[in-house]
Design a protein that fits this description.
The chain has helices spanning 31-34, 36-39, 42-48, 58-69, 77-84, 122-133, 144-152; strands at 4-11, 15-17, 70-76, 95-99, 107-108, 114-118, 137-142, 158-164, 172-173, 183-192, 197-205. It is of the alpha/beta class and 206 residues long. The protein has a single domain (4-205), classed as Dihydrofolate Reductase, subunit A (3-Layer(aba) Sandwich), CATH 3.40.430. The radius of gyration is 16 Å and the shape is globular. Residues 3-194 form the Bacterial bifunctional deaminase-reductase C-terminal domain.
Length: 206
């Protein structure tokens, strides 16, 4: 049975992205600080279809596990706009549902990635994504606001966060404005490495 998940990197002080995000400044310029552990892994570059990475460690195992379990993605318009100009063709290898007010025909890429543009809310996007996932999980890709919407709607089953040992001081917080009474949270795993701390939680709606 499909689960609704997210898998995100954050700074030690809780920031998902920096300030002044734009297509010219993706993630507010802090991706290298939050995701440096991921960029070191061969698994990440394999996903992009290019050679790269210096390591193939336990951190890479978690990257592959998340890739393998995901059957469809949901993301917000801002994240899509930041990535559209730089992402390689067929990055996601699955259907991606973009939350937006813009009316646009699906963007069918070579391979198995199709971007669908959803104008009628998160429930509609989720319904479509679950059908596309064919029993695999639906990953709420981001940005932070999109993840927050799904959390506050009581729709998340599980999440995996990767805490980088860095303070950003300001930016966009992943858990800003969360309804603290929506779920009972249970720790599933705590896995340290020399680059990052991995935390996996399950969520039970109250």
């Amino acid at each position: 049975m499909s689960k609704i998940i997210f898998d995100s990197g954050i700074s030690l002080d809780g920031f998902f992205a920096g300030n002044n995000r734009s297509p010219q400044n993706p993630m507010g310029g802090v991706s290298g600080q939050i995701h440096s552990w991921m960029f070191r892994q061969k698994a990440f570059w394999e996903y992009l279809g290019v050679e790269g990475g210096k390591e193939d460690s336990l951190d890479g195992k978690f990257i592959r596990e998340t890739i393998d379990r995901t059957g469809a993605f949901i993301m917000g318009k801002r994240m899509f706009e930041e990535g559209e100009v730089v992402w390689p063709n067929d990055l996601y290898k699955a259907d991606v549902y973009v939350l937006t007010h813009e009316k646009r025909e699906p963007w069918v890429q070579e391979g198995s990635t199709t971007f669908h543009f959803i104008n009628d809310g998160i429930e509609s996007a989720l319904e479509k994504a679950l059908k596309s996932a064919n029993g695999k999980d639906v990953r709420i890709q981001g940005g932070a606001n999109t993840i927050q919407q799904f959390l506050n709607a009581g729709l998340i089953d599980e999440f995996f966060i990767h805490i980088a040992p860095v303070f950003l001081g300001s930016g966009i917080r992943l858990f800003e404005g969360i309804d603290k009474d929506k779920y009972e949270l249970k720790i599933m795993e705590v896995i340290p490495s020399d680059q990052v701390t991995h935390l996996k939680y399950s969520l039970i709606k109250k």
